[in-house]
Amino acid sequence: MAIRWLALATTLLVACAARAPRVPFGALGDGLDPFLAAHQLGDGQAIRADEVGRTATASYHLVQARGAEHPHRHAVHDLTVVVLRGRGTLTLAGAGVPLAAGDAAVVPRNTVHWFAPDSGRAIALVVFAPPLDAPDVVPAEVR
Fold it and tell me: What predicted TM-score, i.e. pTM, was given to this entire model?
């Protein structure tokens, strides 16, 4: 009987173990690692954003952050951020929100924000609604 319970507990633990996130959409259809290998951050480049897909109502971007963003806002776009790898702090309307792989955050338009990875590189899927068709980064002063 104890062996049955041990087998059941082991099966449940394995089923609940963390796994790498999958994003089978657009340019990420072949997997996250092949996409990242083909779209590497350049030397000295803190942030890289690549559009990976689009619908009529939103555009989807893979954002890699090796350094902190500057405080900014988006005048005409709402954002949804889903952290795929790494961790850092999203400062949103003056409050620091720690985020790690698996966490999500919503950034309403015109809200001052920026992200700073804790160390290494953080990777997020960022959804712009409506779709991003032109630059929409408005620098902001932090007081």
Answer: 0.81
DSSP string covering the chain, please?
-HHHHHHHHHHHHHHHS-------SGGGTT-HHHHHHHSPPPTT--EEEEEEEE-SS-EEEEEEESSPPPPEE-SS-EEEEEEEE-EEEEEETTEEEEEETT-EEEE-TT--EEEEESSS-EEEEEEEES---S---EE----
Range 2-139 has CATH code 2.60.120.10: yes
Per-residue pLDDT of 8-32, as tens digits, reads 444 444 445 566 666 667 788 888 9
- For the segment 58-103, what is each residue's pLDDT rounded down to a tens digit? 999 999 999 999 999 999 999 999 999 999 999 998 999 999 999 9
